[in-house]
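## retry 2 of 3
previous attempt timed out at serialization; input unchanged, resubmitting
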Amino acid sequence: MEKTVNQKAWFLILPVLILVAFSAVIPLMTVVNYSVQDTFGQNQFFWAGLEWFAEMLESDRMWDALGRQLMFSAIILTIQIPLGVFVALNMPKSGFWSSFCLVVMSLPLLIPWNVVGTIWQIFGRVDIGLLGYTLDALGISYNYTQDTFAAWATIIVMDVWHWTSLVALLAFAGLKSIPDAYYQAAKIDQASRWAIFRYIELPKMMGVLMIAILLRFMDSFMIYTEPFVVTGGGPGNATTLLSIDLVKMALGQFDLGPAAAFSIMYYLVILLISYVFYTVMTTVEKNEG
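## retry succeeded, writing output
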């Protein structure tokens, strides 16, 4: 007897497919359309082929922004992953204080991105900001609107404050999944604290750390609102990351063709680096297993 297949389940996911089409696929196709054409207004388009892609690949402006973006993401990952793991290891594992720490750690994640930028913009001002005023009173020259190092330090510390909690919460979840029998066996063997971390805790956290690295890389590589609110990409172009440069090109200069080609290459770079991260972390996890 031939088995019949009920296709009615497709109607249940049809709203999701429609939503994805309108929110992702259709805008993406619009960007692709702009990337291969030129427009002079009044909805008149002229075929440009791969001209804008070639122009972007030869643009020092794009490569400089890409270098700044890669450096920012590398610094963020280098700080936040170890710091998040350290915080998770030192958090109480149960009881009232465990719940209290979880709530406190979650608070920065609930603040909207534009509000985070506004907070740190005010916080770092020398005239009314607590950080800027304190550093100035101590005789430390700090002005994130004029000094490149101060601007970079401000946006890095801001991002660490905002997102380290995410890494800590994911790492804490990985630690909570470790059975007590593992620790009891380590205690019987008189294993050192480093040995417990190296051979028990770190392998068990590897899965969630892989997720944390991927999430933090993608988010840091696409960051826009916070640094734009704080520095506006300045001083000069010192903190003009890829996203800020892309918005300036598309909305500030109204160069829609180059901006569309820029955004597609931006998207492909994120996919490529995320795939490399995922492949490396998966390989490491298999070897550890």
